[in-house]
Amino acid sequence: MRTLIRLLVVLVALAMSGCAAVSKSECQTGDWYDIGVRDGANGYGEERFLENAQACAKHGVAADRERWLDGRMRGLERYCTPHNGFEVGARNNSYGGVCSQLGEGEFLHAYNVGRELADARAHLEHWNGEIHEIQERLDRDDKKDKNDSGSKDETGDKRLTKEERVELGIRMGVAIVRREEAQRAVAELEARGREF
Questions:
Q1: What CATH number has the domain bearing residue 128?
Q2: Confidence of residue 45 (pLDDT cuts 50, 70, 90)
């Protein structure tokens, strides 16, 4: 179990470090407070400093950890708000556990609502796709010669039988109901998100 937890921590760290560390010019300018503010506002953990320091070491520039930590704390004050937690969750971004000193409970509550919204949007997209696919199949079938039930269209599909059309109609009905449920869920979660 501990191995799994360590692996998850490493994966979160790698996911959050997806953006490049500091540039050569940022290293040379050396405004470590501002770099820390930016990293904190983006929810990076302390491992980000190591990435920054390694990037600057390649250019012969030393990093200032204390200034970076001061700036990062200021950036985390922006990041660790309930409103931002909701936005991070709604974008389906991961959370690296960086708000433990800054109201993590409120952040996590909003973050979880945002994740629910991301899931609801994914469901809505799925059902929209299902409806579109069924409608296209029915439209292609309607364009075929009604008298030639064995012919194939340009996609290689045979003409639908009555049973297949009924089955598609049932699938369409289910998809429409599910889409409406997903639309309601999205609307409710978006409304909840405006409260943060």
A1: 1.10.287
A2: very high
